[in-house]
Fold this protein.
Amino acid sequence: MRVNGVDSANAGADGESKPPAFQIIVLGAGGGPNEDNVTGILVRSTATNWAKGSVLAVDAGTHLAAIIRIFQESLPESIPVASSFESSVSIASNRAVRRASSLHAGVSITRRSNSLAEHNGHGQATPLQHTGAINPSPRLLTTGPFADLEVPFESVKGNAAYFMRNLISTYLITHPHLDHISGFAINTASFQHTSRPKRIAALPSTIDAIKTHIFNDVIWPNMSDEDGGVGFVSYMRLVEGGNIQFGDGESRGYIEVCDGLAAKCWSVSHGQCMRKHRSHGSGSGSTHEAFNEAMSRRPSQHAATPTNLQHSQSHGHPPDMMRPIDSSAFFLRDDHTGYEVLIFGDVEPDSLSLSPRNSQVWSDAASKINAGVLTGVLIECSYEDSQSDETLFGHLAPRHLIAELRDLAEKVKALKPREQEPSQRKRKRFSNGAHMREGLETRSRTGRTTSQSGRKTRRQTVSPATPVSLVSEDSVPHEAARAAKEPKVNVPHSIHETAQGSGNMSGPWGYRPLEGLQVIIIHVKETLKDGPEPGETILVQLEQAEKAEQLGCNFSISKAGASIWL
């Protein structure tokens, strides 16, 4: 459902629409080789209402250029703020409709916290200081991903700079490959008019790589506040699995990364390299014809790989030994509702990994699915199924993603009490609640035994009166230890193999364990060839495999400029 251009995400148990907890804006959806469409995502809690410091960037291969494009499309349709009686009425009406969409669902949202004004402690609003502004002309955006944002300038670039300097506080980096950090590195030149350093939040290994290979006064000036740098950037080193010194109850282990959002990080594997500092795990290319040919002649490294190699063993290999490349997966938690979203960096399947670590992420996710708080997963699927295992370069194809989701489904089923598995009960889960704005490719699901429109919601509103029971604080290490001992995920050789023996509409589960879970595909690599877009083929292959497996999840392919509400 849309209200004045804003999507309301889910229906509550009372049948009323509930507002989305997250807005996710896709700045870059691809995996190369086109440099203006590589991984870059913005995330905010909708309850923060575009407040100062309320936007989180997850990776920034493409960043400021994409923000400028959004303003180029939406600024011409903006409304001058309080410039006339008519515009004032229009603004008031616009806000009333948006507020009503939230209030009737039991969530009180106050528009405009710090977009253009801050309170001085006496209940009076004072204008923000805008460097370089002679006569600021505030405007209200009414269309596009930044709808309902008030901006101070008339120019596209002025407002883009304002957005980046004032609203984005933290850059959550999954791993240090160029297609995930190049935009950020170049954009640091515009941080000089900010009031505080921007934060890079990442695993220590990622920060070490950025310090050593990017901000080293050779590749790029040292923009950080360490080792005598300029001071535009500050580092936040995350603890894998969450820092139990932070948070309490369901939020224990999560650390605040921006206004309204907290994060917990797990490391995952993204391919392998022969020597330290050399890798073919990510790259920006998509076809890799010459490299593919060379690699296909090498003996496979996967057959002799131990299945339960621990992450702690991945460091300290001799220089001529294969070693895994680290990436990350982040759980982001909305402070206002307790809902979460899971965002992966580049990742390879556990079935091919030197250091299989996805299973520990799925163990954590399974408890959140059963609690009804995990609203969606953003994960890569770089190649079509025609790509061989030997030339995946640390990425996923549809057959591998389905195998990983099957692992997740098994964990969801294992955690669910036996009497709650069949369809006799109403499972506490969210409905099909990801709504994509323009630019996001979605397909309707078919072959369901139950209509989505007729299905009652299984998601409950999180409030102090109705706490959500997540995994207990002392059970996570046991889950991770168990996951490390589990066998690898079995990957079918093709979609055809997956479909065999799955005539039952509920598959082997007895029900669809991932019913309603939104799986949004990122990092699709372009082929630069005629024919269907790779994303279209990947989506078809995923949906065919899911139909056979009957997992219950819904797939979408992200597009640059899309706004996703979860």
